[in-house]
Amino acid sequence: MSGLPYTTTQTASNTPQMVTIVDPYVYQALQSVISREVVIQTVQGNIRGVVTNVLPDHVVLEAGNASFFIRIQQIVWIMPS
Asked: Number of H helices and number of E strands within the chain?
């Protein structure tokens, strides 16, 4: 395995398709804290803000006057404030 969060497969018509891995438990946990302040620890560090949107591959966090789009695959843990 290459360690990448996705794989490219070939279909019968030789059209590449991207397949991503969704973590349903993290996705569900993030949906439960929409509009709440949280701390999200990523592989790069942590960030505190309000969860404004959750999609299968990323979460949108408002911190100050900035929006952060964080890939769910980069999240280590989530702590509601």
From this structure: 1, 7
For the chain, what is the domain count? 1
Enclosing domain of residue 41: 22-80
d(CA 47, CA 5): 22
- Domain with residue 52: its CATH number is 2.30.30.100
Partner residues linked to 50 by β-bridges: 37, 62
**What is the spatial distance between Cα 38 and Cα 60, in angstroms, rounded to a whole number?**
12
What's the number of CA atoms in the CB half-sphere (13 Å) around residue 53? 9
Question: What is the per-residue pLDDT across 27-38, written as a single tens digit (0 to 9) for each?
Answer: 999 999 999 999
